[in-house]
Amino acid sequence: MLIAVVAVNAKIKITSGSADFLKDKATAVLVMDYSEATWEEDEPYQTWCGEDFDERVKISYNSFATGFNKESDDLKIRQDDPSAKYRITVKISVMEQKMAGWGRFYMMCSGTLVVEEIATGKVVCTAKIKREDGNDDYVPNDRVAKCFFALGDAVADM
After folding, report:
1. Under CATH, which number does the domain 11-156 receive?
2. Is 59 helix (H, G, I), strand (E, B) or coil?
3. Residues near 130 by Cβ (< 8 Å), separated by ≥ 6?
4. Domain boundaries defined on the chain
5. pLDDT tens for residues 12-54?
6. Between β-strands 76-77 and 27-33, what pairing exists: parallel, antiparallel or unpaired?
7. CA gap 68, 149 in Å, rounded
């Protein structure tokens, strides 16, 4: 019974392949894809963010990489590494928030994760991300940072 509860509550679920790539002492490049992201399944995320969109994409990239690299003993994300073995693409479908209290909110993201071997183009792992969140905060950009730090950490721990 406990196993069923854990599976239902998993925020990252591998849908094909395996997480064996995480044990590889190699590097990966990261792509954050917001091309189809919506805000609370209502309007395009980029429209909702307005002039803060580019900054939030940068924050999500840096925070994911930091969280991932902190947790992963082997595979590391390096920006623009020409010798990288893997490409990790995080495709965000929905960004949303929930109230934590006293004016603080949690930011949450949902979407998909695709890991491919760059040299061959072979997809080694795909996963579904369901409402991953970080700690609550008053400041929207800090909420984004906490959300993606937690996501990077969780991916490294798959």
Report:
1. 3.40.50
2. helix
3. 10, 11, 12, 13, 110
4. 11-156
5. 999 999 999 999 999 999 999 999 999 998 899 999 999 999 9
6. parallel
7. 7
